[in-house]
Amino acid sequence: MQLFPCPFCGPRAESEFHFAGDLGNARPDDGDVSDARWSAYLHTRRNPKGAAREVWMHLTCGEIFAMDRDTVTHRVSGSHALAEGSTP
Amino acid sequence: MTRHYSALSLLKEGLGGHRGWEPAWRSPQPKSRYDVVVVGGGGHGLATAYYLARTHGIRDVAVIEKGWIGGGNTGRNTTVVRSNYFFPESAALYEMALKLYEGLSRELDFNIMLSQRGMLSLAHSPMEMELAARTVNAMQINGIDAELLGIDEVRRKIPAYDFGPGARHPVLGGVWQGRGGTARHDAVAWGYARAADGLGVDLIQGCEVEDFIVEGGRCRGVKTTRGEIRADRVGVAVAGHSSVLAAKAGFGLPVTSYTLQACVSEPVKPIVDCVVLAPALGTYVSQSDKGDLVFGGGLDRIPSYAQRGNLPVLETVITGLLEMFPCFRQLKLMRQWAGIVDVVPDSSPILGESPLPGLFLNCGWGTGGFKAIPAGGVLLAHLLATGRHHEVSRPFDLDRFARGRLIDEAAGSGIAH
Questions:
Q1: Radius of gyration of chain B from Cα atoms?
Q2: Testing the interface with A: which of B259, B300, B305, B406 to mutate, by most A Cβ within 10 A?
Q3: To bridge B123 with a disulfide, which of B12, B128, B270, B381 should be the other Cys (CB 3.0-4.6 Å)?
Q4: Per-residue pLDDT at B410
Q5: Which whole-number Å values give the CA distances from B148 to B91, B138, B153, in the listed order?
Q6: Which residues of B touch A17 (CB under 8 A)?
């Protein structure tokens, strides 16, 4: 069992967490959004091999936060709370 | 040297000490140019090369594999073949694959050990029985063999299951596809590789694609660890690494790579003679010809390119198996492994030309690529040979995400995505 660092609760078991997508995938809301752009926001993922910046949810406390992780080694290099009012 | 496989050639080689067998395929140096280059030497890539040569007469083809033939997901799956999907588009696709599997040993002159022992998907509640009936109806309307089984029939199929009064997961019935079953996964890769090689296809192992050659906005070949290889058209069938190659080609995909685990027990005498899936438990099992129980379950919930598994999901899968078949508790686990699968939001594959013209995709099979290998090969070969969709692959184009025409097979995929 790997431990992930929740910025609010500290290190907790990986099974308590849910992957919630790429960090910085902002919802397009500037009026005229094309099908392609909306589809890219909904579906297209960076899915990097190696260093990844991701949004995760800690299911037990319900908080959403950012985590820096390597998708090959599974090593976590850090996690932090999202700034108040910012887009994940 | 003996190339053809038959009882006569076996007898002849047996008398000669088996020293005259020709290697199943050559290991040629890559040429600087081919008509078509297929990236990925797994089942889908090899089948693509075979159908390019056999169906379309395009024999100037190279398959480029960074590791070895069939060493990725083709050698890491649990060998199940079936076509019990819900939507007509999927039924056409997976039934095409199953029908090709049914004639494949003869076609390739290579025994893929297809065993249509039947597949049983269990239902544990009245609600699941209603969904099972709906699935059976959909399959029958799509022209695929399907039967709704009640509890008595399920008892006869899997007597070792825990039907006792204290059973953790009592069964009410299930969906039966009698033509489902298993095929030897390595043999599928080796059979296609040998047949493609026999038709003149170059299989280049230990050769990794580092970039694409793009000229005039079109893909003109690949840059590899063994030099540049130019081609009129390039196909990519690399499963969990699709996003990595797409990034090199300059576009993104609706794909997330996850680890999918599987395991085998020590071999025992025959005890389960069909494929059994319990969707509610996220566990499925079959018994190999050797006697070991081959089982697996859901994805690890962490995006990953590590070809190993995490313990929480393994625990869930094994717990589910032992609740289904308590008599398996004494079995030793022999091996556990994992592959990297390409998961798409609607659990359906992506087939078609990529945003980079000249580059064609076969990916997004997620947890279910093995059963689709012959169809994936036929359809990617059709795309590469004609530049146009086959009618079966058209609904699975990448454009379905922008058009909103998703084909959501979350239930048909069997294992939760």
A1: 21
A2: B305
A3: B128
A4: 80
A5: 18, 12, 9
A6: 301
